[in-house]
Amino acid sequence: MDLEKLLSDRLAQAFSAVADGPVDPVVRRSQHADYQSDAALSLARRLGRPPRDIATEVFSRAELADLCSAVEVSGPGFINLTVADPALGRLLSRMAADTRLGVAASAAPQTVVIDYSAPNVAKEMHVGHLRSTVIGDAAVRLLEWLGHRVIKANHLGDWGTPFGMLIEHLLDLGESEAAHELSVGDLDSFYKAARAKFDADDAFKERARRRVVALQGGDELTLRLWRLLVTESEKYFLTVYDQLDVLLTEKDFYGESYYNDMLAPVTEELDQLGLLRDSGDAACVFPEGFAGRDGQPLPIIVRKRDGGYGYGATDLAAIRHRTRDIGATRLLYVVGLPQRQHFEMVYAVARQAGWLSPPAMAEHIGFGSILGSDGKMLRSRAGDSIKLVGLLDEAVTRAADLARRKNPDLPEAAIADVARAVGIGAIKYADLSTDRIKDYVFDWQRMLSLDGNTAPYLQYAHARIRSIFRRSGIDQFTAGPISIGHPAEHALALELVNFGSVVTSVEHTLEFHRLAGYLHTLAATFSGFYEHCPVLRAAGEVRDSRLALCDLTARILHRGLYLLGIATPDRM
């Protein structure tokens, strides 16, 4: 049901006949017609013919009569395509009857591991965790809907030297008092108190160091106290994920500790492969093509002189486990752009070791920073990282005020539901509607606006359509045949049939701003349709067809926003 693909396939056959070989017709939406192909221009040099002549011959060979009402060659050799209204009606009727809105599940489903969120035990989640969590959640939703087997990997920081001081501080407080402090979510105070002792008290520092040795050695008491820290922290993380409305659960926690037993075998295998080198202070791997500013090769530290392991060893163990044991063929790491080089080095070593070989591939899904109005990293007035819970609470509070002003007749219970959907949705959409590799400025007024490219605008568009059906008196609507006649219907139809093409593109690029942009364009186009084409005041088949267009638009807005992790209230 992908119109762009249908047109491409028809033109590809004609281009291939003219060029005596396969040709991508490069079909795109156009301001000069519904679609345009400019492939003749790039073929001109290869064939030694004027591009307009090539385009004219392709036009004469292409079988487009059932799809297009007009096909013309323009300019130096563009092929302009105007889609026929009956063809749009047929495509939309099939989409409306399909629970998947014309988007087929993947014909070649993969096992995909998505590594994202990754907070640290005994530390509260802050605004720096927002982008990884939101982008990762959208990737999970999209790829699962397309039929892939998706494994969510929340790579917790739950191991290493800080746990010596944390466990000693826990013992100083007493287990019950420490458990209470952690259970109320005051993780930052706990961590800061432990850190202050470590920095100021040499005796405490020595105890902490001995405790790390005991932890790494598997001491039973130390492990039990460590598990208490991890368990209470995970409970807190789950409350944040619930508030943020993401799909992460306790089954998705894969801390650094999960890979501990794999580190020695990974090191041995690297050594047997001849990749491990002694640099004096550590055993390292030096992947080819990576050098520092001084021109010296950059290392991945695998094992330190004291027997401990570097972060690189854990990342390598994770890749080896995910490809060998889980059978993953697509590994996605949703981590900030500053970590790009580290992960590229890890991937290079994994390829050298044979753990990351076709069809398996790893991708760094990098992203920029969230900035304040001053253009600097978003922080509190005191200069600290903003706690994520506080940010989400403020979003819901602001959205509740907006809901009361917009619809004062809504009951308070309904306002609470709308406020959560709109407030959390606004934060997510502000992130996902931005090209993820770019920084963006956090602006409450803009992200909660009912105008422009925002979540509230799209949520309101969806609620507005649902109100049409409430006013119509139809309890259960079943779409019948859709017919296109008015130019505003034609414009809306072109956007609706483009849904599958957009989703398929984002499946590969994970550029969610393209899906967000599509949904905004769809909502704006629907507004034009609703202004020019009466729905409930129309009669007979025209009314039924326009109701079907309304319903299909609402369903696509609902599904598209769901894929971004954003709720769609029926009333606002």
Automatic annotation (TrEMBL):
Q: What EC number is given for this enzyme?
A: 6.1.1.19
Asked if the Swiss-Prot or TrEMBL record annotates the protein with the keyword Cytoplasm, the reply is yes
NCBIfam families on file: argS (TIGR00456)
Extract the SUPFAM superfamilies matched here.
Anticodon-binding domain of a subclass of class I aminoacyl-tRNA synthetases, Arginyl-tRNA synthetase (ArgRS), N-terminal 'additional' domain, Nucleotidylyl transferase
**Catalytic activities:** tRNA(Arg) + L-arginine + ATP = L-arginyl-tRNA(Arg) + AMP + diphosphate
- Motif 'HIGH' region located where? 119-129
Assembly, per entry = Monomer.
Which residues belong to any copy of the Arginyl tRNA synthetase N-terminal domain?
1-83
Task: Give the top-rank taxon of the lineage listed in the UniProt record for this protein.
Answer: Bacteria
- Domain DALR anticodon binding stretches: 458-572
A Gene Ontology term for the protein's cellular component: cytoplasm
The places in or outside the cell where this protein is found are: Cytoplasm
PANTHER family reported for this sequence: ARGININE--TRNA LIGASE, CYTOPLASMIC, ARGINYL-TRNA SYNTHETASE
GO MF: arginine-tRNA ligase activity; ATP binding
Question: What family is it from?
Answer: Belongs to the class-I aminoacyl-tRNA synthetase family.
The record's keywords, sorted A to Z, are: Aminoacyl-tRNA synthetase, ATP-binding, Cytoplasm, Ligase, Nucleotide-binding, Protein biosynthesis
List the protein's name: Arginine--tRNA ligase
Check the record and name the Pfam families matching this protein. Answer: Arg_tRNA_synt_N, DALR_1, tRNA-synt_1d
Q: Which Gene3D superfamilies match?
A: Arginyl tRNA synthetase N-terminal domain, HUPs, Isoleucyl-tRNA Synthetase, Domain 1
